Amino acid sequence: MHVFITGASGHVGSALVPELLAHGHTVTGLARSDESAARLTGWGAEAVRGDLDDLDALDTAARAADGVVHLAFRHDAMQAGDLQGAAASDLAALEVLGSALAGTDKPLVGTSGTGLLAMAAPGRLGTEDVVLPGGYRVDAENFVVGLADKQVRSSVVRLPPTVHSDLDHHGFVPALIGFAREHGVSTYVGEGTNRWPAVHTRDAAHLYRLALESAPAGSRLHAVGDEGIELRRIAEAIGRGLDVPVRSIDAEAAPAHVGFLASFVSLDNPTSAVRTREVLGWEPTHPGLLDDLAAGFYFGER
Ligand SMILES: NC(=O)c1ccc[n+]([C@@H]2O[C@H](COP(=O)([O-])OP(=O)(O)OC[C@H]3O[C@@H](n4cnc5c(N)ncnc54)[C@H](OP(=O)(O)O)[C@@H]3O)[C@@H](O)[C@H]2O)c1
After folding, report:
1. pTM of this prediction?
2. Which domain holds residue 9?
3. DSSP string spanning 232-247?
């Protein structure tokens, strides 16, 4: 299959591109800079130059492909507080990709997050059949699933807050480590019994490939290896890795300790992938988050 990927040069893409090439697919990735284009060609993919807002480029590349994976997201806009702008670009890009594939039965795999489930119902075990009515990134998820009615074999992969591995340089785990290093203390909120699910980057990439190859139209899929790890245990692993003390803090103190992660560190987000495993035969085989934290690579020069 010839696959067009937006965001191919990013963290998840750095595992997905090699995964697809190793299984006989060819890849063209969207690249908005020379550096991103060079990464893609270095891995053996082709690069097509363009920004996420360059809708003509998206349309042309999607029409030339046998399947599409949408990973790009304007994290820079999101981190600057422009959530609406980032979500609007995401949806506009998906509308173009979806209309390019409409009527073809070709696969389109979109990306969402398990954290959205916790924001809607904290502590409830998130399953693939939970459908949220709308909102930030949820509108995009629901749009992709709805493309099944337009003869697109669409699916959405919900990623946990922590996609972890040696390929992870700027996700939530390196951010937590950076804050703990900066403040000389690794923190959790309250008892720290709230949970985050997690997945190894290469297991997530495997799931994206299976989704492309065979997910039924309209699937919601969970890329979840660890169903839920208590934040206290994550903080303790970071404390050990950095050799700094570990401390409970109040939720009000979280912004001073973990900056932009303040609203996430209290999330209780246990998430199941039972249905995903059943439907696609996906089995995570790589280390879990606590094993990756114990391995040490997150704490050295990277
Ligand atoms: N990793 C996680 O822990 C996690 C968790 C939940 C959800 N997600 C979602 O999963 C998807 C992939 O995440 P990731 O961790 O791989 O992200 P990432 O490492 O930040 O990579 C983002 C990718 O999007 C591209 N991109 C950003 N803005 C763009 C723009 N305006 N035009 C074109 N390309 C643009 C980047 O290109 P450059 O290489 O040029 O910067 C990069 O290839 C995103 O939707 C993310 O929100 C990730």
Report:
1. 0.97
2. 2-162+200-226
3. HHHHHHHHHHHT--EE
Mean pLDDT of the chain: 96
Distance 192 CA to ligand 1 centre (A): 29
Long-range (24+ apart) CB contacts under 8 A made by 179-185 are: 179/257, 179/258, 179/259, 179/261, 180/235, 180/238, 180/239, 180/242, 180/244, 181/242, 181/244, 183/257, 184/244, 184/245, 185/239, 185/244, 185/245, 185/246, 185/247, 185/257
Examine the domain organization and report whether 10 and 113 are in the same domain: yes
Mean pLDDT over 102-110 rounds to 98
125 and 258 in a single domain? The answer is: no
Please name the residue whose Cα sits nearest to atom 48 of ligand 1.
Answer: 159
Residue nearest to atom 30 of ligand 1 (CA): 52
Query: Does 155 share its domain with 256?
Result: no
Question: Ligand 1: residues within 6 Å at CB?
Answer: 7, 9-13, 30, 32-33, 36, 51-52, 71-75, 111, 113, 159, 161-163, 171-172
Give pLDDT, residue 302: 67
User: Which residue puts its alpha carbon closest to atom 12 of ligand 1?
Assistant: 71
Looking at the structure of the chain, the number of domains it has is 2
Q: Render pLDDT for 33-68 as a digit per residue (tens, 0 to 9).
A: 999 999 999 999 999 999 999 999 999 999 999 999
d(Cα 10, Cα 36) in Å, to the nearest integer?
8
Within a domain: 43: yes
Q: Can you tell me which atom of ligand 1 is nearest the CA of 114?
A: 6
Please check whether residues 119 and 15 belong to one and the same domain. yes
> Are residues 127 and 93 part of one domain?
yes
Give the CATH number for residue 178.
Answer: 3.90.25
